[in-house]
């Protein structure tokens, strides 16, 4: 008998790319709230989601991960990765929730964990300024930059200049996001009949958030105007944020089969 939570499944079940949940995360976050063009982004929402507002939020996150029984944090190659997440403001039957049209991640294990949940992950490289307790010309004092590159091409660049402590969390937030779990069918005449097509909601537990700092921000989409990502280019930048977050994932709520 072969075992394992994900492929590859083996006699001992230890080779699975992703181990059995729960999955534990902690991360440093740089986030920027902004508005986008309603005419361009509204069509991204799968029914029955509707657009609540044109407010979006982009998150650049430096994550560290551990499984329930593992100590992956002792091996940074296993536990650390970076991610860029774009969220839009949606509504489901009158309930406000975020929806994720795009997300990029730097590690295969995180990529697969995301697909299992419904995050539409692609591979990309997120870069974030580091903070240090020591005073130095090389250490930011409330001034941070974050960028996204994909296959060596810069897609997004940003800066934040923090001047406010104890701020509210940015919105939309990725906790409780609506996601689209979708797995296509390769059988001959069934290419348009996906094996999995469902609207789900992320269920995180044991969520902890540090003090949130806020300030002015700049956000620029460098990607070509012909790339669909440019649909989410900012119309107006509202503010920048920096904080830390920790959470655990081991459940999912199915909202509707599509």
TrEMBL record:
Gene3D superfamilies from the UniProt entry: Acetoacetate decarboxylase-like
SUPFAM superfamilies the UniProt entry points to: Acetoacetate decarboxylase-like
Name of the protein: Acetoacetate decarboxylase family protein
InterPro entries, A to Z: Acetoacetate_decarboxylase, ADC_dom_sf
Species this chain originates from: Fusibacter ferrireducens
């Amino acid at each position: 008998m072969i075992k394992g939570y994900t492929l590859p499944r083996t006699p001992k079940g230890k080779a699975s790319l992703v181990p059995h949940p729960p999955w534990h995360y902690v991360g440093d976050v740089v986030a920027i709230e902004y508005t986008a063009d309603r005419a361009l982004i509204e069509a991204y929402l799968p029914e029955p989601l509707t657009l609540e507002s044109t407010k979006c939020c982009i998150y650049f996150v430096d994550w560290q991960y551990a499984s329930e029984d593992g100590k992956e944090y002792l091996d940074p190659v296993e536990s650390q990765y970076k991610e860029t997440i774009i969220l839009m403001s949606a509504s489901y039957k009158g309930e406000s929730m975020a929806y994720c049209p795009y997300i990029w991640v730097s590690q295969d294990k995180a990529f697969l964990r995301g697909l299992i949940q419904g995050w539409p992950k692609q591979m990309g490289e997120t870069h974030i300024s580091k903070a240090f307790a020591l005073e130095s010309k090389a250490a930011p004092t409330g001034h941070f930059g974050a960028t996204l590159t994909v296959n060596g091409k810069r897609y997004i660049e940003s800066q934040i200049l923090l001047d406010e402590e104890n701020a509210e969390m940015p919105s939309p937030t990725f906790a409780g996001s609506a996601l689209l779990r979708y797995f296509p069918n390769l059988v001959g005449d069934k290419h348009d009949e996906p094996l999995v097509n469902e609207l789900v909601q992320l269920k995180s537990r044991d969520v902890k958030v540090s003090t949130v700092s806020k300030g002015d921000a700049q956000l620029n989409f460098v990607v070509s105007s012909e790339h669909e990502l440019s649909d989410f280019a900012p119309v107006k930048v509202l503010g920048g944020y920096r904080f830390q977050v920790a959470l655990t994932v081991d459940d999912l709520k199915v909202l509707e089969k599509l």
